[in-house]
Amino acid sequence: MQYGLVVGLLTSASFLATMYGLGAPSVGLLGNILGIFAFVAAFRFIRSYRQEVERLTFLQACYMAFLTLFFASLLTAVVQYLYLAFLDHGRLFMQVEQMLSMPEYEQWLKQMAGGADIEEVKKAALGLLSNPAKMTLQLLWSDTLLSLILSIPIALLSMTGKNKE
Fold first, then answer.
1. What is the DSSP letter of 164?
2. CA quadruple 51, 57, 146, 43: dihedral, nearest 10
3. Can you tell me the distance from the alpha carbon of 133 to that of 130, in angstroms, rounded to the nearest whole number?
4. Rounded-to-integer distance, Cα 17 and Cα 8, Å
5. CB atoms within 10 A of CB 122
C-alpha cells in the first residue's frame, strides 16, 4: 500500500502537470515524464521487494504490481475529482470543445464514430466533461484497466535479477 501511495503521488503530480500543461506545453511534457516515471517506480519497488525482502512468484509479483497501481489509481482519482470540481473552472471543457471544433479532429471523429452522428459524439464527450464525478469515475475505470494490463509486463520485468535466497 505504501508503494501505491508513492506511485499515486507521482501519477497525481503527472495529472496536475498535464492539466496545467494545456496552456504551457513544457509543463505538459513534465507531466508525461512523471507519468512514465510512476510506472518505472512501481517496477523498481516490486523488484527491490523481490530481491531484498521475499521471494515472489510471477503471479505474486503480478498481484503486487496490480495492487500498487490500483491504490495509485484510487489516490489519483481523488486528486482528479478535487481538481475537476474545485480548481478547473471549466478550462478543460473549453480546451476539449475548442479541439473538437478543429477541422482535423472533425475528420478523425468521422473515422472513429463509424457512422454515428458526430454531433452526438461531441455532445456525449462534452457531457462527460461537464460532470466532475462522471469524469472521475471514467478516469478511475480506465486507470484500473490500465493497472491490470500493465501489471503483467511490470511483473515480468521485476522477475529479472537475483531472487532473495
1. P
2. 10
3. 9
4. 14
5. 18
Do 50 and 162 touch, CB atoms closer than 8 A? Answer: no
pLDDT tens series, the chain, 165 aa? 799 999 999 999 999 999 998 888 889 999 999 999 999 999 999 999 988 888 888 999 999 999 999 999 999 999 999 999 999 888 887 887 787 778 887 777 777 777 777 777 777 777 777 889 999 999 999 999 999 999 999 999 998 876 666
d(Cα 32, Cα 144) in Å, to the nearest integer?
19
- The alpha carbon of residue 32 and the mean position of all alpha carbons in its chain are separated, in whole angstroms, by 10
Distance CA 165, CA 162 (A): 8
Q: How far apart are CA 31 and CA 12, in angstroms?
A: 9
The DSSP secondary-structure symbol of 144 reads H
Q: Which amino acid, one-letter code, is at 158? A: S
Angle at 71 between CA 146 and CA 158, to 5 degrees: 65
Determine phi and psi for 83, rounding to 5 degrees.
-65, -50
| Interacting residues of 104 by C-beta distance below 8 A, sequence separation 6+ | none
Residue position matching grid coordinates 472513429: 112
Distance CA 93, CA 67 (A): 32
DSSP annotation of 85: I
